Amino acid sequence: MEKIRLKLKAYDHRVLDRSVASIVEAVKRT
């Protein structure tokens, strides 16, 4: 269970980073 939870956390961080990056890009464009 611990390993799975850690993997999910790492995955979430990656997804969040990508979402934030795309939002920042969209803001910069306007």
Topology:
Layout: H1 2-29
- The whole-angstrom Rg is 13 Å
Catalogue the unreliable spans: none
Number of domains: 1
Count helical runs: 1
* Total E-strand runs: 0
Kindly name the structural category. Answer: mainly alpha
Helix content: over 70%
- The H/E string reads H
Cα distance spanning the termini: 44 Å
Strand content: under 5%
Q: What sort of overall outline do the alpha carbons produce when their principal axes are compared?
A: rod-shaped
Summed over residues and divided by their number, the pLDDT gives a mean of: 87
Biggest β-sheet strands, sense, barrel: none
InterPro entries: Ribosomal_uS10_dom, Ribosomal_uS10_dom_sf
Keywords: Ribonucleoprotein, Ribosomal protein
Pfam family, one: Ribosomal_S10
Protein name: SSU ribosomal protein S10p (S20e)
